[in-house]
Specification:
The protein has about 110 residues and is mainly alpha-helical. The chain is built from five helices and two strands, in the order ααααβαβ.
């Protein structure tokens, strides 16, 4: 196994989101493919099949809109998700949103 494949195996979902976003900035064709088939493109990118029941949704930030993701509570896992953990999928991997960030937003708190 190559060093690159070993690195990908130990990466988190956030790591993958950053890599995918960077690739979309550098490769417009990759972005178009990702828009057409987010799950298929992501499976190729991570070199691993995703569960058949998993839906992958592509969300692209807009100049005047950001998407804030709230993670699921790991204490609220279904039997299927518990089975998935035994098969190597953790709770944060039971649903995947690939974010393509196109803007920087600063939020000021009063």
């Amino acid at each position: 196994m190559t060093e690159q494949k070993q690195e990908k195996k130990s990466m988190t979902r956030s790591d993958y989101e950053q890599l995918v976003s960077k690739k979309t900035w550098e490769d417009p064709k990759f972005l178009e493919e990702l828009r057409r088939d987010p799950k298929g493109v992501l499976e190729k990118f991570i070199e691993k099949p995703l569960p058949a029941s998993l839906e992958v949704v592509l969300v692209e930030d807009q100049p005047n809109k950001i998407y804030f993701r709230i993670l699921r509570n790991p204490a609220e896992l279904s039997d299927e998700e518990l089975d998935g953990i035994a098969g190597g999928w953790g709770p944060s991997e039971t649903s995947i949103t690939v974010s393509v960030v196109t803007t920087t937003v600063t939020v000021a708190c009063a």
